[in-house]
Amino acid sequence: MKSKNSSQVQNFWSRKFQRNFLGTEKIITILFLLVLTVFISGYSGCDFSTLQSDIQGGNFNLFGTTSNTAEKTGLDFDIDRSYMPTTIYTGQPFNIVVNLENYDLELNYGTVCVSDNIDDSFSGAVETCKRFFISEATETISEKKGIFGKEQKEITPGKTSIAFPSSEESFSYRDLRYGQSSFPGKIIVKLDYTVNSQITAPIKVSSIGDELQQQPIVTQNPAPLQLSISKKVDNYYSNKRIRLDITIKKIANYKIFSPDFADEKKIFFSANIPSKSVTCRTQGYGSTEDYDIYKQTNEFQTALLDFDNEKLIKCESVVSLGKEEVVDYPLMIDLRYGVRIEKEYGFSILSQQ
């Protein structure tokens, strides 16, 4: 009897599980069909060969995010191997042609230098530097793709090429040391340019305290250094005191210099709220050379600061508000620094037979 009851219970739960599972399966199927319908509607008016090419080319994403091209920022470069082969014979003329690309939406300029690691007595690529100007990138919006139909941003970089030593001249190597039939070498290319980032963020302050839940929205162009801000507001006598934590992070593997390239790991920083006093502090600022002997303080509003990979700067400003008043104070940050991109290209020098 007990065995029969046990069998009935098992059959009951088995049937219940099947009904629940089948019900869940139907729901999943319906949801999948709905998603597929929305997905296909996003591609209405175009054939599926377009969809296939977008997926293969990396321009399609389920949520309509931007393509890989739009993720690049700043400058980049490569050398043209048709002018600089991986094997060079002694006496063979060659050029180093550097192809530059600018992914910023503004014109850029700087200096590019080429050299090799071979002793100058063998001639070759003696260090040569040239100034350059490169046009800004252009941004185009393609048709909506993805389930949520977000617009695709396509960045077409500005481009230019620079020939070393010039388009009319060329480099070459003299005979190698006695007994050497080949010698490994490296071409070193360095690109320097300056970034001037103008960053803004409205700082909302309320006399009734609602601003505590609202963090600043930072507006800045893509750059090797990116900035984030968090704020706190508290009562300060009859006024309000704004306290800001400003974090600067390096997001690209470049070397950072002062704007004039005089010092490595230095950045120029300035914080300003129009018609208000702003004072800032940061770790590492306050040595003898930084100390303001006239103001008797280590606080600053504008300074050349040490910078490695990340920097926290704490700034304060005191403002006065009327009763039940809400004000957006425009915080403006000027961030300037030099960027150096350095790449090496291997090659071999062979003696002429």
3D architecture notes:
- The protein is mainly beta and 353 residues long.
- The chain folds into 3 domains: 40 residues; 135 residues, Immunoglobulins (Immunoglobulin-like); 145 residues, no CATH class.
- Helix content is 14%, strand content 44%.
- It has 2 helices and 17 strands.
- The strands form 4 sheets. Strands 2, 4, 5, 9, 12, 13, 15 and 17 form an 8-stranded mixed beta sheet that branches. A 4-stranded antiparallel beta sheet has the order 10-11-16-14, with no helix packed on it. Strands 1-3-8 form a 3-stranded antiparallel beta sheet, with no helix packed on it.
- The N and C termini lie far apart (102 Å).
- About 11% of the residues have low confidence.
Brief overview:
This protein has helices at 2-41, 48-57; strands spanning 75-79, 87-89, 96-102, 108-116, 128-134, 138-145, 150-156, 158-164, 182-206, 225-236, 239-250, 255-257, 266-272, 279-282, 302-306, 310-319, 326-350. With 353 residues, it is mainly beta.
